[in-house]
UniProtKB/TrEMBL annotation:
Protein name per the record: Secretion system C-terminal sorting domain-containing protein
UniProt entry tagged with the keyword Phosphoprotein: no
Keyword Signal: yes
Signal peptide: 1-22
Domain of life: Bacteria
NCBIfam families the UniProt entry points to: Por_Secre_tail
Length: 418
């Protein structure tokens, strides 16, 4: 007897309005020189009317008043860890920063709550606050350590089986209490002996690698996670022209590369320093190289890009009134209404350096509506054996996605992705 197999599918039809109306362009509110000078800035955090900045060369943690631009206090440290992932807020309104192989928690007044020496695990630590249950620490040579926010106790540590052999530019983001995305520089390039690598890891009693995505001939990875979407990119080396940003969908046991975006376009040299999320919109802080010299000797400019979830450019703002203006850290205000960029300004290519703070007012992100029609209105017959017909009608042009999910809620296939 031949058994007939019937398939019942669930289809989500998402029709997102292409344009609900022109979104406002952000405005530069103020540009101020800061009362200190350093050669590099690793990270910045805004809480209330104050900005906390982790600096390099020399190494300081600095608190400034955003209203007066005065330094409230500064304290030295030895090394910031991995650039861009060295200073975070804690769930209880304090701060954690990496100081080489040591993690330190302080109050907004600069008082030390606790410190944790992790030199037995790693010599260079990055940190991430993407979980309210623990601080995610990720060391060179791919050591993952979780710390208790309250007292700094080590909750667990694992050596990631397939990480990178790197010294800096590494970080890990917690997607849940057991799923982590690890971002690494590796030595697996084809022409330049360097690459960037994204590894999904599940932690049970041991660390299990679920999947990896590696791109040769890029370095200095940047990235962030928005639900099951990962944005991951790095700077091109051959030729050294731009930053490539990859949008990746986590499919569970595997991944799907959704898109690759050449930031600022193929004819513009743009090096992305930081990524931020603002209501699912992607904010990118870029160094835009002016002129024809790819190393920036003709000048550089502050530029901020905003992309929506479909990687369509929403707005761009640039500041090229200064000849060598390199943005190195950005931070959002508590209400996400303002963006603060900390930059190095040089009158000539070789310096000397001064530090500047640019305050930018942000428009309210436009939220696209998602229309989910009744499944029986678009798919008939359902269930079906050999074939079915899917019909839908749109009143105006819009981005559309049709996906088939199985009974476990896993994506089986994308039928339309426009």
């Amino acid at each position: 007897m031949k058994r007939s197999h019937y398939l019942f599918i669930t289809i989500w039809l998402m029709a997102m309005a292409a344009l609900l109306g022109a979104q406002e362009t952000p405005q530069i509110v103020d540009v101020d020189q800061l009362p200190f000078s350093v050669g590099d800035v690793s990270d910045a955090v805004v809480m209330g009317n104050f900005c906390y900045i982790n600096t390099c060369l020399p190494f300081y943690l600095v608190k400034i008043d955003l209203l007066t631009k005065e330094v409230i206090w500064q304290q030295p440290n030895s090394y910031t860890g991995s650039p861009g992932y060295s200073l975070v807020k804690t769930p209880d309104g304090n701060l954690c920063y990496s100081d080489g192989s040591e993690i330190v928690k302080i109050t907004p007044n600069g008082d030390i709550c606790w410190s944790r020496d992790l030199s037995s695990y790693s010599s260079c630590i990055s940190i991430s606050n993407t979980s309210n249950n623990f601080l995610t620490c990720y060391g060179n040579y791919s050591n993952l350590i979780l710390l208790n926010y309250e007292n700094g106790a080590i909750l667990g540590n694992w050596a990631i089986p397939t990480g990178g052999n790197h010294y800096s530019y590494h970080f890990a983001i917690a997607s849940s209490d057991s799923i982590f995305y690890c971002f690494d520089n590796t030595s697996h390039g084809t022409t330049s002996n360097t690459a960037i690598k994204l590894t999904k890891v599940q932690i049970n009693t041991a660390a299990e690698v679920i999947w990896s995505f590696e791109v040769p001939d890029l370095l200095q990875p940047v990235g962030l996670v928005d639900d099951n979407i990962i944005y991951f990119g790095g700077q091109q080396l051959d030729p050294w022209t731009n930053t490539l940003l990859y949008k990746i969908e986590d499919m569970g046991d595997n991944y799907q590369l959704v898109s690759t975006t050449d930031i600022a376009g193929p004819d513009t040299t743009a090096h992305v320093h930081h990524l931020l999320l603002n209501n699912h919109e992607l904010l990118l802080s870029c160094l835009i190289v002016l002129g024809d010299d790819p190393n920036g000797q003709d000048g550089s400019a502050l530029s901020m890009f905003c992309y929506n979830q479909n990687m369509n450019l929403v707005w761009q703002i640039s500041q090229n009134i200064l000849p060598f203006f390199v943005t190195q850290a950005v931070a959002l205000s508590d209400d996400a209404a303002k963006l603060y960029a900390i930059s190095i300004y040089r009158q000539t290519y070789s310096g000397p350096d001064t530090n500047w703070l640019t305050e930018i007012s942000l428009p309210t992100p436009v939220t696209d509506p998602v229309l989910t029609p009744n499944i029986n209105d678009v798919c008939y017959p359902n269930p079906f054996r050999n074939s079915t017909t899917i019909k839908f009608e749109m009143n105006s042009p819009a981005s559309t996605s049709i996906a088939v999910y199985n009974i476990k809620g896993q994506v089986v296939r994308h039928l339309v992705q426009s």
